[in-house]
Design a protein that fits this description.
alpha+beta, 39% helix, 2 helices
């Protein structure tokens, strides 16, 4: 897997949070890791200086296809990372299936010269 960039706004990330994010993204994106060139994770305290309980996670995945962007909001940072990583994995798998399906359809279609027109 390529480099994962983790930034936070409104609170500091501990080494344990970073390790958890690397681990969860590794699991979620493992199957399509060859298509991923860069991953950006942004953790934000939604309520800002009021230090509310809500935090958000935005994940951007760039690679061979279109950029994939997903996120989640939760009060627990670890659960937040889990939910956002799962969504990112599902979206990436869907995009890979869509891309592979289009390639298979093009290969299976007969060439235009061989189609019998009556």
């Amino acid at each position: 897997m390529k480099k994962i960039s983790i930034t936070s706004h409104g609170f500091s990330t501990t080494e344990a949070i970073r390790a958890h994010a690397y681990k969860r993204l590794g699991f979620a994106l493992d199957r399509a890791a060859g298509r991923v060139e860069r991953i950006s994770v942004t953790l934000t305290d939604v309520n800002g200086p009021r230090h509310g309980v809500d935090k958000s996670c935005l994940i951007r995945i760039g690679g061979a296809g279109p950029e994939i962007v997903c996120g989640a909001v939760d009060s627990d940072v670890y659960r937040l990372i889990d939910r956002a990583a799962d969504r990112a994995g599902r979206l990436l798998r869907r995009e890979v299936e869509r891309t592979v399906g289009k390639r298979r359809q093009r290969r299976q279609a007969p060439p235009q010269a061989m189609v019998d027109v009556q």
